[in-house]
TrEMBL record, chain A:
The gene is atg13. GO terms for biological process: mitophagy; piecemeal microautophagy of the nucleus; protein localization to phagophore assembly site; regulation of autophagy; regulation of cell population proliferation. This is Autophagy-related protein 13. Keywords: Autophagy, Cytoplasm. Residues 390-399 have a biased composition (Low complexity). Belongs to the ATG13 family. Metazoan subfamily. Residues 372-382 have a biased composition (Pro residues). It holds the Pfam family ATG13. It is found in: Cytoplasm, Cytosol; Preautophagosomal structure. Residues 362-399 are annotated as: Disordered.
From TrEMBL, chain B:
Keywords: Autophagy. It is found in: Preautophagosomal structure. InterPro entries: ATG101 (IPR012445). GO terms for cellular component: Atg1/ULK1 kinase complex; phagophore assembly site. It comes from Sander lucioperca. The gene is atg101. Coiled coil: none annotated. One of its GO terms (molecular function) is protein kinase binding. This is Autophagy-related protein 101. GO terms for biological process: autophagosome assembly. Belongs to the ATG101 family.
Length: 475, 218
């Protein structure tokens, strides 16, 4: 009930929530672009930097966010979600995380809107900046390029977490109480990032040596299918297809009064210990030879990167019957890009491999694949607020959270029998250092030798007669 | 008013100490820094803009966000560098603790000096380990990255409880609450101190240093 709220405060609060939602989306998508973000501090307020933070606005992202909101605001029962997913060059895709901006009914009537709520929303955005670099999808997004891209999708309404697989984890970024409800920002992320299977790299023949980077015109965004948008960014001054940086239609509040006292607000947050998702790198041993050589010819994506470092040039087509990859645009969402194919995971103990569970295996049928047919998650009205996720990782399963870069010596067989070449290398890889070669000991002994030299010389000089007699004896 | 105290603990290799400390201290300061205040008439003020910067660690699989301010970064780096040097002097398997304390100044009459009243203290305990080979170092690199991620989540959880923060000051009082010496951002008044313990856990040399932003100067 906001009967106690003045019209001006209500108007301000709605404005804050609206721009907070838009900035949240910007921070999340920009954190998945694959590049490091850098913005400058400015001592003078510009009037367009909401929440006193320098967060650039990518026009396309703002457009998508506004389209999803459709004039509404996040409220009780109406959550705004940003879904981050990964799509491989083979067309497989997988949801990685879902960021949720929700509101519950717990109101804080006494809180000052234009001051405390605003500042706390600013702190929450800073927390979001920090947390977006911590979830496993961040590392994946930094490595996107040849073999996969990261997509985002914004939707409004009910939170959907079923695509995150079994045992997903949640992290609460923060909460801010307002007179109309408590804003909660959280992230549910997948932890079961299984290894990519061999078959995806065997199908596409590698093309040698072509690294092409060029900028192409941005595609028309109106025809995008519901598969998500690539996290890519073109600097506003290079745009000719978009309207450039959108002018803030409303200037953000930058003036505060020094008179109001700060409000105390304490809330207990339930901290879900995130499972060790590991490095979650998409480095497949066989693909190491393929990654820099294959240009995915089976799909056409068009991405634009501001930085020439990226070496992929792909064309994104929306809907076109003659398009060879029409299946991609149908968003079949073949969840199973990272398939842990083996039913009997090989333990590290038997193989002496650090991440042996993710060594490449033979092909298995998809029926047994838990990734393709994920088990049903138990229903819950507010999945992010209850400790609903299963703690899937135990001692032996913890290895499954890591992606192994397998050590493949040349000419070794593609099996894991003991005493193959790889095992031999591993066993004898780290022999202890010879004591005499230890720099410390050798330098010490040399120092000792040098120190004792004058004494030795003195002794020899004293016994010089003996030495002469010995030499004579030998002759 | 009781000072809020939070303790974080990390176990790292010697070469990771600097980056791990920078990551955590900068994460905390990101949340405890504001834009520059510009006071206007009628008791109102406006706030400048804080920029941010992603920093990739070289020895840890981790990226953290810091405030885009070279002055602030220099100050933190100086403190962390001293801590790191003190740790390495103490021995290869050293333990130490670096503390970031936010405080308010309370003016006193002459001849008494201003009082520093801490309102939040973050203590980061560091255990330094030695690793034997490159394989272990690679594993450590990833593990420490994950641990730092957990610590960042801890920090964010504490900060978002929105417990006590100093009241927003008037123009005359702003130097008692904020550090206004930086030209681009305005963190709350803070100081960084550290102490080193040997492997037995006893304070062999309790080295307390007051670094930048120290207020005690008679």
């Amino acid at each position: 009930m906001d009967s106690g709220l003045s019209p001006q405060d209500k108007k301000d609060l709605d404005k804050f929530i609206k721009f907070f939602a838009l900035k949240t989306v910007q921070v999340i998508v920009q954190a998945r672009l694959g590049e490091k973000i850098c913005t400058r501090s400015s001592s003078s307020p510009t009037g367009s930097d909401w929440f006193n933070l320098a967060i650039k606005d990518i026009p396309e992202v703002t457009h998508e966010a506004k389209k999803a909101l459709a004039g509404q605001l996040p409220g009780i029962g109406r959550s705004m979600c940003v879904e981050i997913s990964l799509k491989t060059s083979e067309g497989d895709s997988m949801e990685l995380e879902t960021w949720c901006l929700e509101m519950n009914e717990k109101c804080d009537k006494d809180i000052k809107v234009s001051y405390t709520v605003y500042n706390r929303l600013s702190v929450l955005l800073k927390s979001l900046l920090a947390i977006t670099r911590v979830t496993p999808a961040y590392k994946l997004s930094r490595k996107q390029g040849h073999d996969y891209v990261i997509l985002y999708r914004i939707y409004f309404g009910e939170v959907q977490l079923s695509g995150l697989g079994e045992g997903f984890q949640t992290v609460r970024v923060g909460v801010v109480g307002t007179p109309v409800g408590t804003i909660t920002l959280s992230c549910a992320y997948r932890i079961n990032l299984a290894f990519m299977s061999n078959r995806q790299f065997e199908r596409s023949a590698p093309i040698m040596g072509i690294i092409v980077d060029h900028f192409v015109d941005p595609p028309c965004s109106s025809q995008r299918a519901n598969m998500g948008h690539p996290c890519n960014y073109r600097a506003p001054d290079e745009e000719d297809g978009y309207a450039g940086v959108q002018d803030s239609q409303e200037v953000c509040t930058t003036s505060f009064s020094t008179s109001p006292p700060s409000q105390l607000y304490a809330s207990r947050l339930s901290y879900h210990h995130p499972a060790q998702a590991g490095a979650a790198e998409l480095c497949h041993p066989a693909a190491n030879q393929v990654i820099h050589q294959s240009v995915a010819k089976q799909f056409t994506f068009r991405s634009i990167y501001t930085d020439i470092r990226y070496t992929v040039s792909v064309t994104w087509r929306s809907v076109s019957p003659s398009d060879p990859v029409e299946s991609l645009n149908a968003f079949t969402r073949k969840i199973g890009a990272f398939v842990n194919k083996s039913n009997t995971p090989i333990t590290a103990a038997s193989l002496d491999l650090p991440f042996a569970a993710f060594a490449p295996r033979g092909l298995d049928s998809e029926e047994n694949d838990p990734m393709v047919q994920p088990p049903d998650s138990p229903p819950c009205p507010s999945p992010l607020q209850a400790s609903l996720h299963s703690q899937g990782s135990d001692g032996s399963g913890q290895q499954d959270d890591f992606v192994m870069v397998d050590f493949r010596p040349a000419f070794s067989k593609d099996d894991l029998l003991p005493m193959d070449l790889g095992t031999f290398y591993r066993e004898f890889q780290n022999p202890p250092q010879l004591a005499s070669l230890s720099l410390h000991i050798s330098s010490q002994s040399m120092a000792d030798d040098l120190d004792s030299l004058p004494e030795k010389l003195a002794v020899y000089e004293k016994n010089i007669d003996e030495f002469d007699a010995f030499v004579d004896m030998l002759q | 008013m009781n000072c809020r105290s939070e303790v974080l603990e990390v176990t790292v290799e010697a070469r990771q100490v600097e980056e791990a400390m920078l990551a955590l201290l900068h994460t905390i300061l990101l949340h405890r820094s504001s834009g520059k205040f510009h006071y206007k008439k009628e008791g109102t003020y406006s706030i400048g803009t804080v920029g941010t910067l992603d920093i990739d660690c070289d020895f840890i699989d981790f990226t953290f966000v810091r405030v885009s301010s070279e002055e602030l970064d220099r100050g933190i780096r100086r403190a962390v560098s001293e801590f790191k040097d003190a740790l390495s002097i103490s021995g290869s398997d050293g333990m130490g603790q670096i503390s970031l304390e936010f405080y308010q100044k309370k003016k006193s009459r002459w001849p008494f000096s201003d009082e520093c009243i801490p309102w939040e203290v973050w203590s980061i305990k560091v255990n330094v380990v030695n690793l034997a080979n490159e394989q272990e170092r690679q594993i450590c690199r990833e593990k420490v990255g994950e641990k730092l991620g957990e610590k960042v989540i801890n920090v964010v959880e504490v900060i978002n409880r929105h417990e006590y923060l100093p009241k927003m000051p008037t123009q005359s009082e702003v130097d008692n609450v904020f550090d206004t010496s930086l030209k681009d951002v305005q963190p709350y008044l803070y100081k960084i101190t550290y102490q080193i313990t040997d492997t037995l856990g006893t304070s062999v040399s309790t080295t307390m240093r007051r670094l930048i932003k120290d207020t005690l100067a008679l």
